[in-house]
TrEMBL record:
Transmembrane segments: none
Protein origin, superkingdom: Bacteria
GO molecular function: ATP binding
Protein name according to UniProt: Phosphonate ABC transporter ATP-binding protein
InterPro entries given in the database record: AAA+_ATPase, ABC_transporter-like_ATP-bd, ABC_transporter-like_CS, ABC_transpr_PhnC, MetN_ABC_transporter-like, P-loop_NTPase
Keyword terms: ATP-binding, Cell membrane, Membrane, Nucleotide-binding, Translocase, Transport
Gene3D superfamilies in UniProt: P-loop containing nucleotide triphosphate hydrolases
Domain ABC transporter: 17-260
Organism: Rhodococcus gannanensis
Amino acid sequence: MNAPGPHPPVAGDDIVASLRGVTKTFGDAVALDDVSLDIHRSELVVLLGLSGSGKSTLLRCVNGLNPVTSGGIVVNGVRVDGASARQLRTLRRDVGFVFQHFNLVGRLSCLENVLVGGLGRLTIPRYGALTYPKAMRRQALDHLDRVGLADFAERRADTLSGGQQQRVAIARTLMQQPSIVLADEPVASLDPENAGIVMDLLFRVCIEEKLTVVCTLHQVDLALGWAHRLVGLRNGVKVMDRPAVGISRDEVMDIYQRVDPETSDASARSL
Ligand SMILES: Nc1ncnc2c1ncn2[C@@H]1O[C@H](COP(=O)(O)OP(=O)(O)OP(=O)(O)O)[C@@H](O)[C@H]1O
């Protein structure tokens, strides 16, 4: 596997997702606290922070899975908070989601799992790979080839290793033809070697396709190697938002310092 990419310049300056003063609470727990953030087209943003700092909640707010408590989110021109169910369905067709646990249908073949990514473009449901249009089957095979799994097309997904399953999930996301990809700790359940391979693959194809990516990650070195921008969360507060170029590992590790809950707000906001 090649070394991480050289931080290619961001292709566009236009903002495709914008969060303004977003707060999300679950009962008494404040998962996001007045977070504002702009994501630019083709930008690769990595969210870092301790477990429970609000990273997954932020991703889920962006595609409307978590309604915000206050504040506003606009994605591809659509106001997510307050969007109708129909608007959300349309939005989600354009926003791919890569999950930690892959979310494949284990009893289906790899090819059919990838084809599922294209369902949003069809008007009637399909059962079995052969019921999809031939052009889509060819496309799905191409995506499997791209992630190095063309030979596994007919294999049941649940017979693959975790790393292979995540590669199928990446092919499924490509099949969806999204403009934005949200990835929630996509390699958290993989061993370090496979984590590196899968992350390199995900970032590489997203950069090649000029996709906008927001990814939560605990692997700081991978984030430093690939991301255009690093955003740090601590106790739901945005404590860092910087281009990845020029930032040191120590500065990134600062995000992971535990803080006294009595003073966390003040110290976090002052960063
Ligand atoms: N559905 C929920 N109900 C209640 N509390 C929740 C819910 N989802 C998240 N939280 C709380 O919100 C806070 C942020 O959680 P979140 O999962 O966003 O953190 P995270 O940074 O993604 O953590 P991890 O790295 O472990 O995935 C935590 O205190 C969590 O317990």
